[in-house]
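Shapes recur. Our protein:

. . .
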Amino acid sequence: MGNRASQNFLGAWWAPMLIEKSPPRFRERLALRVLSLSPHYFFDSEGRLWMPASLVRKEAIRNSSSRAQIVDEVIRPYVGPADTVVDYGCGAGYMASHVARLAKRVIGCDVSDGALTCARVLNNANNIDYIHPRGLADQHDIADLVYSFAMAQHVTNKVLSEILHSIHRILRPGGTLLMHFVVNGKGWKTESEAVHDKSVRGRIRLKYGLNCFSRSSDQVLGLAQAAGFIDPKILRMAQITRVDDDVARQHLLSCHI
């Protein structure tokens, strides 16, 4: 459906067009169905290619509820009512919609035009702009806070380094970055291990599947410092939130410029 090498599973040209050209009364249903075609958003324990409509709706509710809890327990202390906040890797906008109730402006950015179209349908608000990261290319010092959840583990170190440098550029002096990572994840492979897995299954997964990379604490801290961030800290998410989600078993990078 898209450029899977960049983990853009909803990048096909027809995904946003299908939603945008449909009658308004069908757009929410179509947006949820399009999201269900990507491995990023909805989970089916039976691994079906076509999820039942009832499960799609249930997963949408789960996404919104879990993201609301993460916003309340993790992000809220860093957001002021006059702030501009960037959600980097916003996906369908479930987290951005909750942050928008706390901040003056939210910019949700994602590489997937399909996901952005779904976000505009499912999680729109007057103070949210959903854009591709290229829309931030010429921006400087625009954000008080940038956060990113369930994104870093899906990209290579090279791409992540580029993202961190971009985030550093758009943060205002004194601004904060909160980025969720999988650190020393049990059962997770590092990027190097995934690249050197020459089995048929390993090569297919790396090229076409949803990549899920683990990193060491030193690697995460090194990437942040190389991008110019100061005072980087890695926190255990379990100490911050009790959300019923994989995120609670992982880690959070907190740093500033």
Q: What stands out?
A: The CA atoms of residues 108 and 130 lie 5 Å apart. Residues 53-75 form the longest helix (23 residues). Residues 63-256 form a domain with the Rossmann fold fold (CATH 3.40.50.150). Confidence is low (pLDDT under 50) at residues 1-5.
